[in-house]
Write a structure and sequence with these properties.
The structure is a homodimer of 540-residue chains. By secondary structure, the first copy, chain A, is of the alpha/beta class. Chain A folds into 2 domains: 256 residues, Aldolase class I (TIM Barrel), CATH 3.20.20; 143 residues, 2-Layer Sandwich (Double Stranded RNA Binding Domain). In chain A, 41% of the residues lie in helices and 19% in strands. Chain A is globular. Chains A and B meet through helix 4, helix 9, helix 10, helix 13 and strand 9 of A and helix 4, helix 9, helix 10, strand 9 and helix 13 of B. Chains A, B: This is Citramalate synthase. Chains A, B: GO terms for molecular function: (R)-citramalate synthase activity; 2-isopropylmalate synthase activity. Chains A, B: Keywords: Amino-acid biosynthesis, Branched-chain amino acid biosynthesis, Isoleucine biosynthesis, Transferase.
């Protein structure tokens, strides 16, 4: 029986403290659902007392059933000289409707006297009262001892008394925070082992990465007896980030033999990492340990031949265990079987022979090399598979488009687009305005097609993301555009790549429309009398 | 007396194995000179036997006197069944003219029999002969035991015999390599300690970062008795990279009390890191430990007030010790004193009264509400402060611009921009093409201004980021554009926000130019005769 280590994700709260990280409520909901599927135990969603966006997240989550994870709200202990039940911050935690709350309190005497400006005894009262109050309302309570390791160095007796206060008040977990992120693994190990000897409550660790040691610090804490690790996906977070759960999990599970998630869930690790990077619009470093594109890429000739003979000669783990892959020439057979599995997953019926499958795998690889990414754009992948299998009718083709953007001397701005399409043998030539060049193009395209395909009227774009691929090229660099569309609650994503942001957007827009037309059949489009009847309506 | 840990840099050899890393001979020379100034002990320049570029580097370095560092060449032991003095690879090492050589040999039995296809005894002969041969020619010899930690796990007796063979042959250093990068800190510690007990030769450690544990592994090895760390600047290298010396050095020196470089040299650490990133044309992550832009950036309101009272409350080291600086993030600017602290940090001399400061804070908050973000765009913030203080001359103003983007029936794409500006009382009206609308606008803007402000010719854009702010609006949503520009190694960032990606880009582009003009003075721009003289030159 393997020992369990609990995973506590704070991407949605501490992660958003990272410079340049900003997540909408819907982004947070999407990430929470994926974290749950992956097997995370606690999902910290925000600080309900601090802002309305975080409160809105907890409201949304009440409607969404999770399989496994406990949605957790973050807050602090009550203020000095305020009773816990009178404290707005603690009340906001209750109002958020969560079943678990994580509250931080001071454990470094310097912070109590100098930052909080209260007495050491009053701080103990605040910790105890706050924990007891939340426990009395039926919550699972995690007490986060802020700056614990620095505090323990300066005044071990007081730091331990703070933990004892939380324990006596009934805390379910005591989490030791390396808030400044500067502790070393041997310090973490020794301190956790000492704490373990005097505290019965299960311990957690909350490391930051200021010394580039956060992953090692998490492992050291677990080896010394901690049973929970708090971190973020891809290590996002304030300053140098929180500990990167994406690296902690495979180290714990594959190397140290702890139980974190099921093996099938672990295979989703690479996808989870890339999904969060995509939603947060953060460039993933290729050399990211475990899940990076280069993590199992073999360059040197000696390495390649050895790794093909025996992967363990140059690979520390089997990349498949975490859903990543080796990037030596992938065997074509493996490519083909993967492809058919993917087609099945996408619920498309393609009968491909060996040669066709080889061709598609080759095409996908070429396009990925150009910068396309199909993990976040499965509708575009579906279209490519259908096309290769000869199952996609060309319902429209582009003849040309023009976009004119103007900022005049009076500083007013306008954007217009003209499109010329071939639809069912007819030429459709129309124009529209928009509040930007891509929006104008989008509007013109729909205007041209809605007449023929009424189902497009109910489709709308829900997300539009631009990522610069080769940053050294700056405004001349390649960009990848990801578009998410929705109709009737169903959503799909498409991708376009070009050095020209408009061209990349056009590709993704066209794919999103083609996907819907394939999915819905859109048969009414072929009756010319209906087409004519509708022309008048939409020609506004 | 502090114990010395020797620094061995392999940025120029193992670093260039990283995906996308490519350094010219001159790049390598520049980096070597900086590494020497910084206090690196060994600079591994390349593998003379493997390619002519590496040989050319060693030739160049013979002309360049270094103050401290020993230029070192990399190679392997002789081939099976070939005498060391007959081996081309070892001869190339001698021909390179270096005083020190690092040769790798197998220490994992599996690699000897399966990859090298020879006997365990022959491998010992190869190690001993190769070391003895190079020693007999007067070189300092470092023996690199490839895959030592994996080998030691599988066959500790043989792994140790390999080290003994190198020691008996006279190796000056024995370096233990975690070639696959998957070892854990406690394994490294235990193994190095065991080796230390049976080998008298000084030990080094060569970790890779596949488990996100390389820095911890380097520290563990030193704590167990290793006296040399081999790594790269910024951790570049194959797969997930080599260990990052930029993080190893301050951990060893500031936290563990070892002696690596002089304190004045340590203050150059941030510059060194950024210099190498610049030469290697790699984007530095803002959250890079110790030297990143965000490494000492404080966002949360509680943190800011505490850190201003006492930096050690939220900083693990004093950033000045490594040449980095504290940044108070603007979003938390709450009042006049913070604003003035910021102005001082930005090195701008503004004398604001209480009322003016209030106005600026209000303006910043309004613009942040609109979607501007000044955390990543301090040049735009600087301009705003200067403007408010009446210290910014308007050197140019926009009259109008037009952009035409066209995709024709033959599917070719073009982007053109026209701009009309007022510069020094003149109207400049010009046009340019680009490989996208923003690039065309950028080109037209520079073309219009370079005549008047020649310093713009040396400025270039290094990064361009687009973030959609309100995703529900999709292509009609607001976007934020962040642009990073550089000149002479100095970088600055600017921001623009609009529902129109082109307009937002224009704002950021214009700010980046205005910032440089302010910073540089650009006085020659005001002499009309010079302006006229240059018109002919640039009007291409």
């Amino acid at each position: 029986m393997k020992e369990k280590v609990y995973l506590y994700d704070t991407t949605l709260r501490d992660g958003t403290q990272g410079e340049g990280v900003s997540l909408s409520v819907e982004d947070k909901v999407k990430i929470a659902v994926k974290l749950d599927q992956f097997g995370i135990d606690f999902i910290e969603g925000g600080w309900p007392g601090s802002n309305p966006k975080d409160m809105a997240f907890f409201e949304r989550m009440r409607e969404i059933p999770l399989k496994h994870a406990v949605v957790t709200a973050f807050g602090s202990t009550c203020r000095p000289n305020v009773a816990a039940e009178e404290d707005d911050n603690l009340r906001a935690l209750l109002e958020s409707g969560v079943k678990a709350a994580a509250i931080f309190g001071k454990s470094w005497d310097l912070h109590v006297t100098d930052a909080l400006k209260t007495t050491l005894d009053e701080n103990l009262r605040m910790v105890a009262d706050s924990v007891a109050f939340l426990k009395s309302r039926g919550l699972t309570v995690l007490f986060l001892a802020e700056h614990f390791f620095d505090g323990y160095k300066h005044n071990p007796v007081y730091a331990l008394r703070v933990l004892e206060a939380a324990e006596e008040a009934g805390a379910d977990w005591i989490v030791l925070c390396d808030t400044n992120g500067g502790s070393l693994p041997h310090e973490i190990f020794d301190t956790v082992r000492t704490v373990k000897a005097s505290v019965q409550t299960p311990l957690g660790i909350h490391p930051h990465n200021d010394g580039e040691l956060a992953v090692a610090n998490a492992l050291a804490a677990v080896q010394a007896g901690a049973q929970q690790v708090q971190g973020t996906i891809n290590g996002i977070g304030e300053r140098c980030g929180n500990v990167n759960l994406v690296s902690v999990i495979p180290n714990l599970q594959l190397k140290l033999g702890y139980d974190c998630v099921a093996p099938e869930q672990l295979k989703q690790l690479t996808k989870l990492s890339r999904f969060v990077a995509e939603i947060a619009n953060m460039a993933m470093p290729n050399n990211q340990p475990f899940v990076g594109n280069s993590a199992f890429a073999h360059k040197g000739g000696i390495h390649v031949s050895a790794v093909l003979k025996d992967p363990k000669t140059y690979e520390h783990i089997d990349p498949e265990l975490i859903g990543n892959k080796r990037r030596v020439l992938v065997s074509e057979l493996a490519g083909q079987s993967n492809l058919l599995a993917k087609a099945e997953e996408l619920e498309i019926d393609v009968a491909l022979d060996r040669q066709e499958a080889r061709e598609i795998v080759k095409r996908i690889k070429e396009r990925e090399f150009q910068g396309y990414q199909y993990e976040g754009a499965e509708a575009s992948l579906t279209l490519m598979l259908l096309e290769a299998a000869g199952k996609l009718r060309q319902l429209f083709t582009l003849d040309s488009f023009k976009i004119l953007m103007e900022k005049t001397a009076d500083q007013s701005i306008s954007s217009e687009a003209m499109v010329k399409l071939h639809v069912n043998g007819q030429v459709v030539h129309t124009a529209a305005e928009g509040n930007g060049p891509v929006n104008a193009l989008d509007n013109a395209l729909r205007k041209a097609l809605e007449t023929h395909f009424p189902c497009l009227a109910e489709m709308y774009l829900t997300d539009y993301k631009v990522r610069v691929l080769d940053e050294s090229g700056a405004t001349a660099a390649k960009v990848r555009v990801l578009i998410e569309s929705a109709r009737d609650g169903e959503k799909w994503s498409t991708v376009g790549v070009s050095t020209n942001v408009i061209e990349a957007s056009w590709e993704a827009l066209a794919d999103s429309i083609r996907y819907l037309l394939w999915k819905e059949g859109c048969e009414e489009a072929e009756r010319p009398e209906q087409t004519e009847a509708r022309v008048g309506i939409v020609n506004h």
